[in-house]
Specification:
The protein is an alpha/beta fold. The protein is built from 9 helices and 9 strands. Helix 1 runs antiparallel to helix 8 and helix 8 packs antiparallel against helix 9. The chain is globular and about 55 Å long. The relative contact order is 0.17. It binds S-adenosylmethionine. The site of S-adenosylmethionine has 18 residues, from loops.
Length: 265
């Protein structure tokens, strides 16, 4: 059972739940690309485009065929493992980009280097999101556009409630259960301190999860176990898993999603 918690690929496990049970007509990464491409003024031809915390590169996978031909992409992430996954995604998508490791809190680029920057679902990972926002403002040219997707306070509320008992277990650190330091509700103020124009576009809907095991896989991806797991901890996890499955069976389990995209200039 413990092996199921040791997956190296937590992000993919989480994306899988959204892809399997989300509305196929609404894709976050396609939606935010629509918002960028239909903006007035649009990004200039030959735009220099940055993504920080690019993860596995899903933004580019789902939009590969409509990336304007002249765009020069610089994609970064703090994690070497993510950069490896990103390289694979870009190859499959047939896109060319410069890839480099970078902490969003200390970007290795001169001032005013980019016309467009993406920081999706990552500013809340920074100890102080306002430092990342200041860095993004610094590397954007005047009038450049920042696109920062994040979650609302009610995002995955039912899943977070199911994960909450884990916080009481000795040595277990559940992620994704606490309030975020950069979300749809508080992110606007952080952005407004650096950008003259800030808009929030919200999209709220729900997943209807019909496979209890898929729900459990998502929940396990939130759990960081200590190196050595005691028999007591293993038993407590087994009890928690049984409770989750009892809650989710026969299903479906409704899981609210609350997401939004900030556009800032
Ligand atoms: C939830 S994932 C989002 C990935 C991608 N932006 C997306 O929307 O699919 C968060 C990403 O931020 C990266 N990350 C976390 N802290 C970071 C930091 N300080 N600087 C750069 N990347 C960071 C993680 O490695 C991870 O790839």
């Amino acid at each position: 059972m413990l092996d199921a918690y040791r997956t190296p690929d937590r992000l993919r496990a989480r994306i899988a739940l959204h892809e399997r049970f989300g509305d196929p007509h609404h894709d976050l990464h396609r939606w935010l690309f629509d918002l960028v491409l239909t903006r007035t003024p649009p990004p200039p031809p030959g735009a220099a485009v940055l993504e920080v915390g690019a993860g596995t590169g899903r933004l580019w996978r789902v939009n590969a065929e409509r990336v304007p031909p002249g765009w020069r992409l610089t994609l970064t992430d703090r994690s070497a493992g993510m950069l490896t996954a990103l390289r694979g995604t870009l190859e499959e998508a047939g896109l060319t980009a410069e890839l480099l490791p970078a902490d969003a809190a200390a970007l290795p680029f001169p001032d005013a280097s980019f016309d467009l920057a993406f920081a999706n679902h990552m500013l809340y990972h920074l100890p102080d999101p306002s430092v990342g926002v200041a860095e993004l403002r610094r590397v954007l040219r005047p009038g450049g556009l920042l696109v920062a997707a994040t979650n609302g306070a009610n995002h995955m509320r039912q899943v977070r409630e199911l994960a909450r008992p884990l916080g009481a277990l000795e040595g277990v650190e559940p992620t994704g259960v606490a309030d975020l330091p950069f979300d749809c509700e508080n992110g606007g103020a952080t952005l407004a301190a650096r950008f003259a124009e800030v808009e929030l576009h919200r999209h709220d809907d729900a997943l209807e999860v019909t496979d209890p095991q898929a729900l459990l896989a998502y929940l396990r991806s939130l759990v960081h176990l200590p190196e050595a797991v005691t028999p007591e901890l293993e038993a407590a996890l087994a009890r928690w898993e049984a409770e989750v499955l009892a809650h989710a069976t026969p299903g479906p389990t409704r899981v609210e999603r609350a997401t939004g995209v900030f556009l800032a200039r």
